[in-house]
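TL;DR need C-alpha cells for one chain.
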Amino acid sequence: MINAWTAGLAAVAVAWCAATAPGQSFVNWESAHVHPLDVTPGGERLLAVNTADNRLEMFVITASGDLLHRRSIPVGLDPISVRARTNGEAWVVNKISDSISVVDLAAGNVVGTIPTGDEPGDVVFAAGRAFVSVGTADEVWVYDVPYDPGAPPTVVSIEGEDPRALATDGTTVYAAVFNAGNRTTSLNPALVNDPASNPYAGTPNPPPNDGAGFDPPLNPNLPTPPLGAMILQEDAAGTWRDDQGTVWGGPFPFWTIHGHALAHIDAGTLAVSYTNDLMALNMAIDVSPVNGHVAVVGTTASNVTRFEPNLRGTFAAVNEAIVDPDGGPTVIFRDLNPQVAEFIEQAAGFVPHQGIPHDVLVPPDVVALGIGDPRGVAWSPNGAFRLITGRGSNNLVRVGPNGARQGLIAVGQGPTGVVFATNGLERAYVLNQHGASISTIDTGAFEAIGSISFFDPTPETIRTGRPHLYNTTKSSAFGNVSCATCHVDGANDLLAWDLGDPSAEMKEFNQTCIGGGTICDDTDWHPMKGPMTTQTFFGIIGTEPFHWRGDREDLAAFNPAFDSLLGGPLLSDDEMAQFEAMVASLTFPPNPNRLITNELAPSLPNGGNPANGKFLFDTPPPPPPPNGFAPPEIMGHFTLFGRPPGGGDGDGGPVGGLGCAGCHAGTTGTSTEILRPFFGPGAITQINHLTKVAQLRDLYRKDGFDVTVTEPLSRGTGFLHNGSFDTLLTFLSAFFGGATTEQERLDVQAYLQSFAVDTHAGVGTQATIGGAGSQFALRDQLIAIADAGETGLVAKGLFGGERRGFFYFAANTFASDRAGELLTVAQLDAGTTAESAITYTLVALGTEQRIGVDRDEDGFFDRDELDICSDPADPTSTPQTATCCGDLNGSGGVGFDDILVIIGHWGPCGMCAEDLNDNGTVGFDDILVVIGLWGACGE
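>> reply
TL;DR here they are.
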C-alpha cells in the first residue's frame, strides 16, 4: 500500500513541478562567510550557517563533544554570520536579504526579521545593544535589544572601506575594515610626466625600478613602452615612495591615506577610534577572553613592487596582528607563513622581496605548510593560543601567544569559521564552507577527530571549479596564494598592480577596434602595461576578450599566470574548463541603488537623477559635419552632446552617433571591441595604448578617493584602467565636460551607480508575519512584485503546528510543500501567531520551488517526504525508498510498543525520530501519527 501511495504522490509532484516557472534553480552570489559558527552561552548547541541552502543548522553538543544534527531552520538568502544572543535565541546575518533573522531555537523558527543596510556582514551584542556591520555603506548599525520594530537603528559611520567582521569584550566593539588597503595610490600619468613630481632625471615614464634601469632587464627588441601611471606607497611619516624607496615630491601628492584597519567603538557612547596599518584585507577578528587583546588575520599585498617576475609566488603575505587596546606595544605583527622566509634565506640566488625564479623548486613539504586566505580566528578559552583557518589551504593552524606556530592540521574544503566548546571540553569546531561539513578538533592533541556533513544544493560544476579559484596549496609556489588572493571572493581587491614584464616580447594585436580603424591594426600589445586595477570575475564570461587592454582572448589565456604569477602548475584543459564553468556561475548581487521593484530610484544621495542619467547615457551625439576629421590628440574633448572639432574618430572615419552606450553597450555595459589610444595634450585620459571597454555592473561597489577634501582618505585607488581618477564624477567632468552641466554629470553618475545587474534588485527582501511586528505592507508589496513575473516568492515557517514551506503560484495563492495543496494569503495569515510566524522572501525567478517546497529537487515535496519518513535533504531518499514511518523500535510494524517509545521521549525535542510531525515536541500529535500508520510495514 505504501509503495502504491508513494507512486501516486510522485506523479502528482511531477505534474505540479511541470506547472511551475522554469529557470535556474541555484544562483551563485559566492557570498563569503564572516562568523559562520557560534556556540550558545550554555554550551549545549552549535549553530552553523548553511549559506547555499539559506538555513541555520543546529547541532547538539554531547557530553563527549560530539555533534548531533538537530534541525535546519530556514532564514534569509545567503546567511554568512550567526551569533547566539541567549540559549534560546540567535541572530543570523543574511547578506543577500539585507536582513537579520531572529531565530527562536526551541521552536526552530524565525520569529522576526530586522532590515539592515546593503550586504550586512556580522553582528555582536554589547551594553544591551546589537551592533551590525553594513559593509557597502561603511557603517555599523546599532539596535536596542530586545529589538523594537518601530525604532530605527543608530548609525555609526566608519572611516574605512567595508567594515565587516566584528568582535567585542562587552564594553568595546571592534570592527575589522575588510578593504583597508595599504596606503598605495596610482599616480596619474600627467603627474608621472611632471618633472616637479618625478624624481628621476629626464622624467622617464615608466620610471626605473633598479637604479636607473629595469629589473628584469629591458628587452632591447621592444619599442618604447607606453606611458602609464605609477604606484606609490605612503609611509608612516606621510612620505610617498616608489618600489625603490625613492621619494616623490613637488606638487604631488596633496592627499594622505589614514590606513584605518580596526575600528574601536565604545559600546556606551558609540565614540570611534582606530588602529591603523594592519593588513590590506582584514578578514577575521577575535578578542582574548583573558587580557582583551584583539587578534586580526588577513592578507597584505605587495602591489608597490612592479613587474610580474618580481612578484612570482610572493605577491602577498598572510599575516596576523595582535592589538593591545590598553597600551603596551601597539601592534604585534606576524607572518603566518614563516617557512617562506626560511626557504628564501636558504635558496641560492633568491633574495627577499623578489619573485621566486623558475629554476628554484619549492619542496612539497614546504608547500604543505602554507596557509592561505585566512577567514577565521579564535582565542582559546584560557587565552593560551589561537586557531586560524585557511580557506584556501584547507587547514587549521595553531599559534601561541607570541604568534609562533604550534601545529597545522588538514580539515575540510574551504574552512572559514572556528569556535571553541564552552563546556570545559578540549574541543573546537571548524565550518568547511566549500565542503558543507563541520570538523571536530581535539584541541589538546590538536587533531581532527571527526566530521559531520550537512545538505548543500550547490551544483557540482561550482564545487568542482572552486578549487581553481581558491586553492593555494595546489596553485602557488609556497601554498599561500591563489587567484582569489587578488580576485577576492571572485571579485577584486580594489588595488592597482603593475604586472608587466620588461624582458618579455610584444603580443600581436588580434582583436577588433571600435570603428574598424587602422590604428589598432598597427598597434600590438607591449609587455610593459603600467598599473592596472584588479577586475572582477563576476559576469565576465561572454564578454571576451578580457583584461583592461583586451589582450586575453578568453579565460584560458590567463592560464600562464598560474606559473608566471602564482608560481604553480598550469591548469590542464579539463581543469580550465572546470574553472570557466565556475566563473560563469558568478552572479552580481542586487544593486542597492535601485528600488526593490528593480526600477531606478528618483534620486541618489549624490543629488543625481538616474533616469535622466540613463537618457543622457543612451542618447547618441549629433552626427559629425560632412567629411570631418579629428586628430587623436584632441579626442579627449569628446562630450556627451557634441564632437571634437571635425567630428571624426582620428582614423579618417566618423564616430557616427556612438554616445556612451555606443561603447558601453547592452546589459553588461561593455563590448567585444577595443578602443584605440587616447593620448595627447588635450586627452585627459592619457591612454596611449589599446583599451578594452570595461563593464559597468560593478561600478556601484567602487568608491574611489576624493582629492578635493583635506581630510585623510580611506584609499588611493579610483577609476579608469589604472585607478588614477579619484572619483567617477571627476572622470565624467573631464571626459564629458565640454557641453554638459554639473547636474547632468551627477545624473549620469547616478545612473552608472544604478546600472542593472543580473539579479533583480528586490531579490532577498523579507517580511515576517506573526505577532506585533508583522510586516503586512511589505509582504503585500513582495506579492505585487512577484505578480510582475520577474521574481519568485517563497514563505517558510510554522503553520498548523508543522514546519512548512510555500511558493507563490498566482492570484494571492501559494502552493505548499504538500503536492497539490493551494492556500490563499488570507488562509496563511489566519494560521500565523507570534509563536508560529511565517517569513516571506523574494527570490530569483526559477529558485522558488527549490527554496520553497523541494529542498533536494528530487521531485517529491518536502512535507510529503516528512509525512512518509523520507529525507527532504537527500535526493536519494524518497517516499519510495523510505523506512517504515512510525516503526520507532525497529520491529517491522507500527503498534503499541511504538507509542511507549513516544511516551518515553515526551517533551521538547529537536530533530529526534520520535517527533513524527516535526513540530519540535514529542507529544499526543505523534501518538496520532502512530495510530494512523498502525500495522505491519509495507502493507
